[in-house]
TrEMBL record:
Tagged with keyword Nucleotide-binding: yes
One example GO MF annotation: ATP hydrolysis activity
UniProt-listed Gene3D superfamilies: P-loop containing nucleotide triphosphate hydrolases
Keywords for the protein's UniProt record, in alphabetical order: Amino-acid transport, ATP-binding, Nucleotide-binding, Transport
InterPro entries listed in its UniProt record: AAA+_ATPase, ABC_transporter-like_ATP-bd, ABC_transptr_urea_ATP-bd_UrtE, BCAA_Transport_ATP-bd_LivF, P-loop_NTPase
Pfam families, A to Z: ABC_tran (PF00005)
Name listed for the protein in its UniProt record: Urea ABC transporter ATP-binding subunit UrtE
Keyword Transport recorded: yes
Family: Belongs to the ABC transporter superfamily.
All residue ranges annotated as the ABC transporter domain in the record: 2-229
Top-rank taxon: Bacteria
Encoding gene (name): urtE
GO biological process annotation, one example: L-amino acid transport
């Protein structure tokens, strides 16, 4: 279980996450929803140690993780797919993937073969530059890169943003495989409701840095959608 307990975070004077508490059950897919600017990305960045907390605790399987640096968080089993993908455009696909290798245990520093089974397109493009891939392929590369460390928890920030519908369906299938077949815990930030409904077991809605609603996905009501999600 990944637990956020009364987390507060600031950008300068700006109080972004406010007494935010959230339980993310192991093996489930939890979707974080909410309008632009409510703090979804900040929340994931705080879990990854990119944003320091002013107060509160983040615990993974009972252990507090704040003492671990940004560089060390992936080794705790946290795989992160940032918003906008952020692959390295001038590096090859192979080089983008190899970045995670030093974080693997000694003697196991090769790309796990299941990654190429999940993303056969990447296998054919290992020598291509990341920046020459299509948006959908770059998103697949970003997910593959996060998987290189064999994460227990995969955090994805709007993986379908700006991606063509056929690739969106492919990415949905891959996230489902990781979550339901391989048992990986998934934390998904997503604004597209049908995508969220298809994948998630649980939802959490943020508004102005606070959790305003959470529960099993099927319990999300039309009133909540109207109040917190649609424009
Ligand atoms: N690096 C930053 N410095 C200052 N303010 C930021 C920074 N990143 C985000 N913000 C602000 O924090 C709030 C939450 O942003 P963000 O977490 O990106 O929201 P979301 O992902 O839900 O759209 C917004 O008001 C945004 O403008
Ligand atoms: Mg965001």
């Amino acid at each position: 279980m990944l637990v956020l307990d009364t987390v507060n975070q600031y950008y300068g004077q700006s109080h972004t996450l406010r007494d935010l508490s959230l339980d993310i059950p192991t093996g489930e897919c939890t979707v974080i929803m909410g309008r632009n600017g409510v703090g979804k990305t900040t929340l994931l960045q705080s879990i990854m140690g990119i944003n320091p907390l002013a107060s509160g605790r983040i615990m993974l399987d009972g252990q507090p993780i704040q003492g671990h640096s940004v560089e060390a968080r992936p080794t705790l089993g946290l795989g992160y797919v940032p918003q906008g993908r952020q692959i390295f455009p001038l590096l090859s696909v192979q080089e983008n993937l190899d970045i995670g290798l030093p974080m693997r245990p000694r003697g196991q520093r090769q790309i796990p073969s299941y990654i190429f089974e999940l993303f056969p397109v990447l296998k054919d493009m290992l020598a291509r530059r990341g920046g020459d891939l299509s948006g959908g392929q770059q998103q697949q590369l970003a997910i593959a890169r996060a998987l290189v460390i064999d994460p227990k928890v995969l955090l994805l920030d709007e993986p379908t943003e700006g991606i063509q519908p056929n690739v969106v369906a492919e990415i949905a299938g891959i996230i489902q495989k990781l979550n339901k077949d391989m048992g990986m815990t998934v934390v998904l930030v997503e604004q597209k409701l049908p995508f969220a409904r298809k994948l998630a077991d649980r939802f959490c809605i943020l508004d102005r840095g606070q959790t305003v609603a959470q529960g099993p996905m099927e319990a999300l009501t039309g009133d909540q959608v109207k109040a917190y999600l649609t424009v």
